[in-house]
Design goal:
This protein folds into two domains: about 45 residues; about 40 residues. The protein has three helices and no strands.
């Protein structure tokens, strides 16, 4: 995986080469080459889709809620045990 700065630097260098000098290519050709360049760069990063990110956030929230419920139960059980331990 490339570091974000290295990725942006490489992308900038490639874009500069693509758009520098005399370009007799039509705008649509430049756009398609630039899109291909971006897709190539993004494929080197470990990206997830928005859907996957959102679903993982739901799982995380559910896990946190369960963890908090378990912590509350443990505290309740410890509170019940303290009077017994004091005797």
């Amino acid at each position: 995986m490339l570091a974000p700065k290295a990725f942006l630097d490489a992308l900038s260098d490639q874009a500069s080469r693509l758009f520098s000098g005399d370009t007799s290519q039509p705008r649509s050709e430049l756009e398609s080459q630039f899109k291909a360049l971006l897709q190539s760069g993004f494929s080197k990063l470990e990206l997830v889709s928005r859907e996957e990110f959102d679903s993982q956030m739901v799982v995380l929230a559910r896990t946190r809620a369960r963890l908090e419920a378990l912590e509350a139960k443990v505290e309740e059980m410890e509170a019940r045990l303290q009077p017994v331990a004091a005797e």
